[in-house]
């Protein structure tokens, strides 16, 4: 069993199609060589569906993390899942050369048969944006797009490339999403309101979000640091991973007493 993800790229011109394939194949070549328990295994690509590129990857019956937590296992160890996400992202960031995910959110986190989190679709949003096409990774609701997970530096006038620091902001948003089953900026209905909040320095949890208050204090501190509006002040994903491991270890030790 494999999963086939059909990208919403359909180049009208042959030169655009060739450019899309070249860029996609470059990303696939990198992804195909990765081996980590928290990264989805990619087998290759296919162009057999009306010429559109498709990713062929490992199949996970549990599907995406957001739906798994909402419908299949709401009592799952959510802290362990965000640690899995941190480990997968650390693997990408410490790769040689470093790999920026650039599209980290709950819909790009899958759950294995063993109930662990794995990352997928890194680099693909940049492939599609290279053609100026819709990414295909937005949610079904047109009012809630990927801006809710993107770092505020993307709102500046000039187009900024994704960075390790922007991935850390997105990690905080994804962790918040998985811990609370609430979207970043869940207090806002439309993305235009999210953008306004960002300009006003309001973080993804909102100013008085009740779901955020339920998170373990040390984890809240980590998320808050990852949402620094100054990219250089955000912690590295390695620092986040180490601190999450310490939090989980202390929780386990407390349970043994």
Structural account:
This protein has 257 residues and is mainly alpha-helical. It has a single domain, classed as Transferase(Phosphotransferase), domain 1 (Orthogonal Bundle). It is 42% helix and 10% strand. It contains 9 helices and 5 strands. The strands form 2 sheets. It has a 3-stranded antiparallel sheet, with helices on one face. Strands 4-5 form a two-stranded antiparallel ribbon. Strand 4 and strand 5 form a beta hairpin. Helix 3 runs antiparallel to helix 5. It is globular and about 50 Å long.
Could you give the order of strands across the largest sheet? 1-3-2
Under CATH, the topology can be stated as Transferase(Phosphotransferase), domain 1
Structural class: mainly alpha
Tell me what portion of residues adopts beta-strand conformation: 5-15%
Which overall shape is indicated by the principal axes computed on the Cα atoms?
globular
What's the story with the biggest beta sheet? Answer: 3 strands, antiparallel
Q: What is the end-to-end distance?
A: 44 Å
**What is the CATH superfamily label?**
Transferase(Phosphotransferase) domain 1
Q: Point out poorly predicted stretches.
A: 131-144
Number of extended strands: 5
Radius of gyration: 18 Å
Order of helices and strands: EHEEHHEEHHHHHH
Overall pLDDT score: 82
Number of helices: 9
Fraction of residues in H or I helices: 40-55%
- Count of distinct structural domains: 1
CATH class: Mainly Alpha
CATH architecture: Orthogonal Bundle
